Amino acid sequence: MKLFNGKKNPQPDSPNPYLNARRSWNIHMGHVQQFGALGIFIGVAGLLIGLAAVGGITYIGSQSKTVPMVYEQDKAGNYVSLTRADRLPPAKIDDYRTAVWNFIDHIRTVTPDGELQRKSVLRTYAFLFPDDPATTKANEYLNGSKERNPFTRAKTEMVSNELISVLQQTPDTWQVDWIETTRNRDGTLKNPPVRMRALVNVYQNTNLNAKINENNDVMNPHRIFIK
């Protein structure tokens, strides 16, 4: 008979409740951390998507909803053409033909009506781009000397033009034939009518960001310029 029972040592393969609890806790905390990281990722992604959506809506809302239009009228006030000003369609053959003749007619016209003469000069420059050689030549012709200035000439004479033909020679060059008649202020012939011819090089400037006077777009809606 043993008076003292010795404490039994646990067997190596016996389950330890403390270790099992620790393992369970570690597994639980691992799952919590995984789901926490996933939740943070989803939250950040949702925040970025929300910011992008708000920014996109703000940008779209700030854009102009107005579509600018350019229209052309004939002398009777009828609408001839209507185009969008936010994009420029390619000019047609008739557009080039009309632009070439209008330029020749306006730059050669001399009239005693000061307001009409001023409009002719403005319409002349509507077909001239500031950096083109034709602009320099037009300046020399209209303002090279006092005698050639149309306002000075209008004090003693008048010049009218009669179109004969406008023919395309190359994709960019047009030949214009016309009869120019010079009269005294009383209407009598100053010089016999003269048949004249010019070769005009043209192009269309489709750059809507180009620095062009707003009035030019009304007088030259297709932006056809003399080179």
From TrEMBL:
Transport in keyword set: no
Pfam families per record: VirB8
Keywords assigned by UniProt, alphabetized: Membrane, Transmembrane, Transmembrane helix
Highest taxon of the lineage: Bacteria
Gene3D superfamilies: VirB8 protein
Membrane topology category: Single-pass membrane protein
Subcellular location: Membrane
Bacterial virulence protein VirB8 domain segment(s): 21-204
Entry GO terms, CC: membrane
Transmembrane segments: 35-60
Protein name per the record: Conjugal transfer protein TrbF
Species: Salmonella typhimurium
